[in-house]
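note to self — DONT lose this again. spent like an hour looking for the file last time. sequence + predicted structure for the chain T wanted, 312 res
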Amino acid sequence: MNLTAGTLQRLWVRREVSPYGWFLGFGPEDGPEVHLPYGEAMGERPEVASEIEVFLFHDDKERITATLRKPLITLGEMARLEVADFHPNYGFFLEMGIGRQLLLPLKQFPAERKNVWPQTGDELFVVMKHDKEGRMLARLAKIDDLAPDVFRAPSSWQGEWKEGWVTDVFRDGVFTLVEGGILGFGALGYINEATMVHPLRIGQKFRARVTQVREDGRVSLSIRASKEVGRLEDADRILAFLKERPGGAMPYSDQTSAEDIQRRFQLSKSAFKRALGKLMKDGLIVQKGNWTHLTLVEDDRPKDQATREDDQ
């Protein structure tokens, strides 16, 4: 038997040595020992010649040490842990319930896309493993790690708003774990980039609408409201933007590229066109060339500006 970091072990209390604490082993006498400091006893006083359960970790001097604190994760297990700190040379440090933090190396994240890196307070699904020296380390959980614990989303979820966490990020969208509530651990989901109001990062908690419950029990999600509700909200946003513009005009129309629309309004081109259509139907805007104007200020523009814009 080995004294392995990241594991829970039932060990024999061999002796107490003041002012250090207790020394534990797999039996009364033979075999390796591990130190249980007084500060790791959490107010309890283990009795010599009794058996206790402890968690093993490396202390600041790289020595295997025992604690009576209960960890949120153990070796080989998966858990959702909160990001407590970040170091640009090492990575993210996660709270694991024992007064020490678990390192998630920076190499787990795309170096060219720092906008998807977690922030302090985000929660990550990780698996505990060992580095080459046998020290505790975290890696991001993959679909195969999540799959044994998830359930098939019920058809009743269709159209409902759910909360969840981003588990991985791809070029065209993000994988998620949708909170299961009383149903259990959760269901797997996917959010396409086109349905996002803003980019999402790994570990970020979100609220999204279930747009499809697939045959395999996974769900498709959208951060945006339904088309009708979204159309009203988008129209209000564009109207507010126009009211703040000089002369009530903007150099965006249904002819503007999808990339420019996404960059400026965080909307897909189809959603942008639906919102413009509503505003035009309501008589609030007009389009001339590549410009969109508020009708209320159309006749109030300076003559030289109106002529210049109308010629574009």
